Amino acid sequence: MSLKQQAAQGSDVDERLSALITNSNAIRAIASSVEGTLGPKGLDTMLVDKFGEVVITNDGVTILTTMEANHPAAKMMINVAKSQQAEIGDGTTTAAVMAGALVSEGVAQVIKGVPVTRVIEGIRAGVTRALELVREKAVPINGADDPVLRQVALIAGREHEDIAELVVGAARMTGGIKLNDPSFKLSETIVAEEGAENEVFMGVIINRERLSKHMPKEVLNVKILVIDDALEPEEIEDEALATEAGFARYQELQEQFKANLHKIVDIGTKAVLVDRGVDNFAEEVLTDAGILVVQRVSNKELRKAAEHTGARPIKRTGLRKEPAELAKYLGKAKRVYEDEKLEHIRILGGRGKPIATVLVGAATEEVVGERERIAKDAAASVQASVKGGVVPGGGAFELALAREVEKVREGVRGMAAYGVDCVVEALKRPFSQIAANAGFNPLEKIGDVVAAQVKEGKDSLALDCDTGDVADMFELGVVDPALVKLYALKAAGEIAEAILRIDTIIKKKAEAAEKNNHNEFEGSDF
Fold it and tell me: Would residue 41 count as lying in a domain?
């Protein structure tokens, strides 16, 4: 074959695989943006917006969800990271790194001539086996008091000991039953504030101040009313107000509102939390009655306060109920007070469900966000460990999985074996990146660790990033939640298959422009 014919054939291949290569490059670029943060020696990333505002972070999901990405494949990758974050709360960097490696290896095999369908078949087989092994090898956690949880929090919390202690304390307060509740997320108990002292307590923070400084700053043995609405008279339309009947209705509603306010006072209410605004007259009446009122409380905080105090949220129309019936909606707490320094309200000792709050202190405004992200990662990992157990970290477990997945090659047909190879290489990628970030040669260290794992029969052997020696991750306290590995693998497999299946990229027509053109055509004389 002449050089000219070879060049023409190469051009045909490039054109045929252009969509696949373009998408692969986009995925690889996304993975590259976070892989430098992986491991104990990972570095930070600086994100800068068009106004010059800067965020410096080591958090993978923050990088992925705030970076500018216009390529459709890149957006797919970011959506997978969001899904991982929503489901588990951690592991997005691992998922991105493995997905990037899996796509790159898959494309490399396709370029060599392996049919895409065979690559996908092999990837499915390899990922399925890896997921089975994660479930089999996960070490269960013995409830919220298991000492291993502190190590989980420390690793996920980037070795911030103060944050690890806070998160573990919150987990113990919350208890194993609550931590296993699918609707509960320990990470939502995290609050970070500038100038605050580190603290974990049983109660809820409302990030608002009392409505008036004339209201009591503190109330004890509190009956709490939670209004999921505005504390204002029921509204009447302006057109109706212009009629005699409408004006009469308006006056009736005003009188009803006044009566409702007096009912709130008469049933012994000492604190009122309101979703929206509070009428001036209501403010005056409740202030005179010595009631602490907080308005415009976020929905999340309102829900947590109701859950902790046992209150039943009520709409403004519900205030028409008889006093005895209305009293059944009240929650109770031992103490409600305003922290004037931190400008928030605390509700402590609620009679409802126990809710722990982790208050993370930060010296300056610039580090508040990062401290909160670190604490949320630690909390998510602790909860995931209670639910699904732990595995050795540091890339050790993935290397052990890679050795087992290699055996799948023997059971797949034909060229699908090359797809299995892609999974094997992707599983090696987290360890390689951790080693590279620590300043070591990844190929050399993979050889050392794999040889040691086989020789000693230990899946927990990996790299001590301080010394460069092979070490037991369990003995070093380097442990990860099994669920993080499980979902990272699933996410990597799903994004790789989705990208590899795309054969053509076609730009959609502009629907708005098309609609305008259609309207113009309809209005023409033709």
Answer: yes
- In the residue annotation, 269 being an active-site residue is answered as no
In a domain, 128, yes or no: yes
**3-class secondary structure per residue, 80-111:** HHHHHHHHCCCCHHHHHHHHHHHHHHHHHHHH
pLDDT in tens, 370-418: 898 899 999 999 999 999 999 999 999 999 999 999 999 888 888 999 9
- The catalytic residue among 59, 275, 448, 480 is 59
Boundaries of domain holding 308: 203-361
Catalytic: 525? no
Query: 350 and 211 in one domain?
Result: yes
The reply to whether 367 and 461 lie within a common domain is: no
The label of the residue with tokens 């202030």 reads 287
Q: Which of 93, 287, 309, 357 is catalytic?
A: 93
Has residue 369 been placed in a domain? Answer: yes
- Grade residue 285 by pLDDT with cuts at 50, 70 and 90: very high
Is 44 tagged catalytic? no
Give the separation between CA 97 and CA 56, rounded to whole angstroms.
20
Instruction: Identify the pLDDT of residue 444.
Output: 93
Q: Report d(CA 404, CA 2) in Å as an integer.
A: 44
- Annotated active-site residue 464? The verdict is no
Instruction: Please check whether residues 271 and 123 belong to one and the same domain.
Output: no
Largest CA distance in the chain: 98
pLDDT average, residue stretch 239-265: 82
Catalytic residue among 377, 421, 448, 459: 377
Active-site residue identified among 37, 62, 92, 174: 92
Output the domain CATH number for residue 488: 1.10.560.10
| 134 and 170 housed in the same domain | no
Cα 33 to chain center, whole Å?
A: 19
Question: Is residue 494 in some structural domain?
Answer: yes
